[in-house]
Write a structure and sequence with these properties.
Blueprint: E1 3-4, H1 5-8, E2 14-23, E3 32-35, E4 37-38, E5 52-54, E6 57-65, E7 68-73, E8 88-93, H2 95-119, E9 123-128, E10 133-137, H3 144-159, E11 164-169, H4 171-176, E12 189-194, E13 198-201, E14 216-224, E15 227-234, H5 235-256, H6 263-297, E16 304-309, H7 315-326, E17 331-337, E18 341-346, H8 354-363, E19 368-372, E20 375-379, H9 383-408
Parallel strand pairs: 1-4, 16-17
Antiparallel strand pairs: 2-3, 2-8, 3-7, 5-6, 5-8, 6-7, 9-10, 10-15, 11-12, 12-13, 14-15, 17-18, 18-20, 19-20
Length: 409
């Protein structure tokens, strides 16, 4: 069993230890080293592992297997002395990474308790990633008001700089402590307490006092598997995120000639103008497509077929043209577009199943498609296939229309 120095002192940055075992990494990767004691925290409880240097080699991963803490090492540059069992080695953790983890993890304890108090929301799961931290809360309704209340309560605990205490107690005492998060194991239990606010069974690394967290900020939330996933940042991450957003806000304000308090309203005005402009563009495009369709229909002997490749037009425009062509009646439009796209449409008075026709013609060329008898869409892999599909479809439609005319005669 490896002695866990990080439990004794989370602020320990350098240490010495004796090598117990060395084994080759998976797939020819560098060594995996087991020590009699370590300050390197292994990935556990939602908190990611420490990194740093051990015997002149970079520590790239730390995992726990059956009470053994295994250090995965990367290659040394320049090469370092071989690591052998029995050798005493020196280790140094990446302190910036460790302290960031301590801020996120302690902040999560406070945030989870605040969510329980203010929203009645139990924490179901925790993820403390290198860039994104989340808690899954057992609550269906969570919005800006709930986020603000939870953030205020959590922030007050940070401002009060409440001590963070570590207790190691037996199971009987644990039951009397009223833990927010009960232990998942038996025997002696490690309990992390934010004085007077939260107690939770936890094996992670934590700051000595809540004030060292600096800030706890909720940055978003979403519905997730019937619960709510809340994203948050603590400490330097929260500060840097706020700095980035402040810079963006200032840039948007300058672009819109608006102050900080006026940016939201200015953005709404711009968005409203954009929506109106888009509506007008669509209206104008619809009129132009109707005019184009009228010109194309002139001189046609109805019922008729229009089959062609319309290059350089976006899919929405091709669909609009097909609809405009067939709207007055007596027409079948078979249009191809960029990327091998196909649009088949017919007038209401032309009784043909274009969905079936499309499927039958594109399958020969490895394409796909479907839709309704009066309107179908699909695609084929190549431009050459597009031409062949349109030619085959045109022949089938013309034959079908001729047959219907003959039956009518």
């Amino acid at each position: 069993m490896t002695e866990r120095l990080f439990h004794q002192d989370a602020y320990l940055r350098e240490f010495t230890a004796r090598v117990i075992a060395v084994s080759p990494g998976r797939g020819g990767a560098p060594e995996i080293v087991e020590l009699d004691r370590t300050a390197f925290y292994p990935t556990s409880g939602g908190q990611t592992h420490d990194t740093g240097v051990l015997a002149g080699r970079p520590v790239v991963d730390v995992v726990e297997e059956e009470g053994r803490i295994l250090h995965h090492l990367g290659p040394a540059v320049p090469p370092a002395a071989a690591i052998t069992p029995g050798r005493e080695v020196a280790g140094r953790i990446d302190w910036d990474r460790r302290f960031d983890h301590m801020q996120q993890h302690t902040g999560q304890h406070i945030l989870s308790q605040a969510a329980l108090r203010e929203a009645g929301a139990e924490t179901l799961a925790v993820h403390l990633g290198p860039a994104r931290c989340t808690v899954d809360l057992k609550v269906a309704i969570f919005g800006p008001d709930e986020a603000e209340r939870v953030e205020e309560v959590a922030g007050a605990v940070v401002m009060e700089n409440r001590p963070v205490l570590i207790h190691t107690v037996d199971e009987a005492e644990v039951r009397r402590m009223g833990l927010r998060r009960p232990p998942k194991k038996q025997g002696m239990i490690r309990v992390v307490e934010v004085e007077g606010f939260d107690r939770s069974a936890c094996g992670g690394t934590h700051v000595r006092a809540a004030g060292e967290i600096g800030a706890i900020a909720i940055t978003g939330w979403e519905r997730y598997k019937g619960a709510t996933r809340v994203e948050f940042l603590c400490g330097w991450r929260a500060v840097r995120d706020a700095r980035r957003k402040r810079r963006v806000l200032a840039e948007v304000g300058r672009a819109l000639s608006a102050g900080d308090q006026e940016v939201a309203e200015a953005v709404q005005r711009v968005a409203a103008r954009e929506r109106e402009a888009a509506r007008q563009v669509e209206e104008i495009r619809a009129r132009l497509l109707t005019m184009e369709a009228e010109l194309r229909r002139r001189g046609l002997d109805l019922p008729a077929v229009v089959a062609e490749v319309t290059a350089g037009r976006d899919p929405e425009e091709v669909r609009g043209l097909a609809t405009a062509l067939v709207r007055p009646g007596g027409l079948v439009a078979l249009l191809g577009g960029d990327g091998g796209r196909l649009v088949f449409a017919r007038s209401a008075d032309v009784a043909l199943d274009l969905a079936a026709l499309l499927r039958r013609t594109v399958e020969r060329f490895g394409g796909r498609g479907g839709g309704r008898p009066e309107f179908a869409q699909g695609s084929v892999p190549t431009a050459a296939a597009l031409e062949e599909v349109l030619a085959a479809a045109r022949r089938w439609v013309e034959e079908a229309l001729t047959a219907k005319e003959a039956d009518g005669a």
